Amino acid sequence: MNKYLSLTKTFISSVEMSKPQDKRRAAMMVVLSLFAVFGILIPISFGAGFLVHVTTSLLSPMGYSDLGITLMLHAISIFTFIFGISVILNELYFSNDIEYLLPWPLRAYQIVAAKFTATGFSENIMQAILVLACVIGYGTAARMGLLNWLLSVVGLITLPIIPLVYCTIICMFIMAFTRLIKNKDIMQRISVILIFLFIIVLFWGIASFQNMDMDLTMRALSKGEPEFMKLLNMLLPGVPLFVKTFSEGSFFALIQYLAINAVWIVVMLALSEVLYFKGVIGRTGSVRKSSAKHRATIIEKCRVHSPGFSYFLKEVRILLRTPIFFSNCILVNFLWPVLIYGVIKLLPYHISIASLRAQYASGDINIRVFFLFGTVALSVIVTALNSISSNAISREGKHFSFMKYIPVPYKTQWNVKVRVGILFPVLGIFIYYIPLFILIRMPLTDSLLYLGICLLSVCLIAYLGIYIDSNQPKLIWDDELSALRENYNTFFTMAIAIGIGLFICLGGFLLFYRTDIIFSAIAVIVLLLLTTANLLVFILTSVHGVKNIEEQEET
C-alpha cells in the first residue's frame, strides 16, 4: 500500500503545472483561472444542468424522471472511454518513466493501480463538475431530500472508474497479445483515425435529430424503456445504479454500485499481474530509422533560407508531422463546419445556399448582422480551440534551451510562432468562407469586411494565447498528448476568447436591435474595437513577451 500511495503521489505531481516564478506571474495565473472558471466551467456546467432539469420536468409525468440524467451520465462516461484510450495507453506503455520503474522491485498491479489512479484524478476534475451540475439539475426538478443529495456525492469521484477500467483492460490485451501498436508514433496515427471515425458517427447522430419525431418518441417511452438504453445500462452498469442511489435514496443500490466498481478494479489488477509486464517489456517510445545513407539524403535536400523563414518551416513541420499536434492543433481548424452543420440541423427551419442567396439579394439586414457577429465568434473560438498559440512555448518542452541558444533573436522567434498561430485558423476559415461568399453572390465589400474581421479576430487571440503561454509554459511533459492535455494555458485562452466573443457579439446585437444604428456603423465599431484590442495586445506582448522568455528557467 505504501508503494502504491508513493507512486500515485509522484504521478499526480508530475502532471501539475509548475509553480509561478514570481508574484507577477502568480497574480496572472489567478486572474486567468478566474476567467476559466467563469468563462468556461460555469457556463458549460449550467448548460448541462439546465438540460437535465428540463428533461426531468418533461418526463416526470410519464414516470421517466431519471431518463434525462441517466442519458447525460452515459454520454459523459462514453466520452471518458473514447478519450481515455489514448491517455491510458500512453501512461501505461509509452511514458518516459516506464524505463525507470521496471528495474524497481514493484509488482505489476502496483504500477497499474498508481497510474490508473493518477490518470483518473487528472481526468476527473472537469467530469466531476459536470456530474455535479447534472445532479443539481435533476435534484432541483425532482425536489430531492437531504439524504439523496448526500448520496449523490459518491458518484462525483467514482463515475469514471468503469470506463477507464475498460480502457485499461483493452490496452493490456492489445499490448500483450498483438503487435498492432509497437511504438508511440503508431498509437498517435491510430488516434487520428479514431477521430475521423468519431466525426463520421457525429455527422450521423446530428442528422438523425432532424428526422426525430417527438410525438413518436413519447409514445415509444410510454411502452417501456428504449432498447438502446437497456444496452447502455448493460455496458455501463454503474450509471443506473448511481442514479438509483440518489434518485430513490437507496442504500442497497449504493452498495451494489460500490461493489461493481470494486469488482472491476480487482479484475483489472488481477489481469495486470498476467498481462502488463508481458506487454510493456521491450517496448520503445518511438522508432527512428537512421543510417549513413539516410543522413546523406537529408543533407542533399537541405536548402539555405533566412533565419526567420527556417524557423517558420520548423514550427510548421512539427505541427504537421507530429500526429498528436496534427490531430489536435491542425485538423480542428478545418473541421469546424461539423459544428455549424449540427447547429443547422437542430434549427426548426431550413437553411440552404439558395435561401442565403435570396436573403442577400433581397437586402435583408439580418443576414449581414448574422455574418458579422458569426465571423467574430467563429474566429476567436477556432483560434483558441486549436491551441497552436497557447502551446507555442510549451511545445518546446525539454528543448526549450534551443530557443535560448539558437542564433535567432527572441523577437523573431516570437513573431514566427504568432504567424503560425494565425496561419492555420485563417486558412481553415477562408477556404470555406470564400467559396460560400461566391455561391451566395455576396457583394465584394461585405466579403472583404468579413474576411478582415476574421483576420483581426484571429490575430487578437493568437497574440493573447502565446502571451499567456509565455507567462507560465508547461515545459515538463512526457509526450505530445500531455503537453496539450495538461497545459492549463489552452483552457485560459479559451475562456478569454469566449469572453471577447460574448462581449462583441452580445453587445453588438443589443446595440443593433435596441437602437436605430445602421449596419455600417456597427461594422465600423466592431472594426475599431478589434483594431484597438490588437494594438493593445501587440504593445503588451512587445514589452513583456520576450522578457517572459528571457526570464523563463530552463528545464
Condensed summary:
This protein is an all-alpha fold and 555 residues long.
Q: What's the helix and strand layout?
A:
Layout (H helix, E strand, L loop, with lengths): L1 H13 L8 H37 L7 H28 L3 H4 L6 H35 L3 H7 L1 H5 L2 H17 L6 H27 L3 H9 L4 H9 L2 H11 L2 H30 L11 H10 L5 H15 L1 H8 L6 H10 L6 H9 L3 H21 L15 H5 L4 H30 L4 H28 L8 H6 L2 H27 L4 H33 L4
Helix pairs in contact: 1-5, 2-3, 2-5, 2-24, 3-5, 3-8, 3-9, 5-13, 6-12, 8-13, 9-16, 9-17, 12-13, 15-16, 15-21, 19-22, 19-24, 21-22, 22-24, 22-25, 24-25
Account of the 3D structure:
The chain is mainly α and 555 residues long. The chain has 25 helices and no strands. It is globular, with a radius of gyration of 26 Å.
Task: Offer a few descriptive terms.
single chain, about 550 residues
Terminal residue distance: 32 Å
Low-confidence stretches: 284-290
Global geometry: globular
Q: How many helical stretches?
A: 25
Beta-strand content estimate: under 5%
Rg over CA atoms, rounded to whole Å, is 26 Å
Give the class from helix and strand content and strand pairing: mainly alpha
Number of strands: 0
Helix fraction, binned, reads over 70%
- Can you give the mean pLDDT? 80
Major pleated sheet: none
Order of helices and strands: HHHHHHHHHHHHHHHHHHHHHHHHH
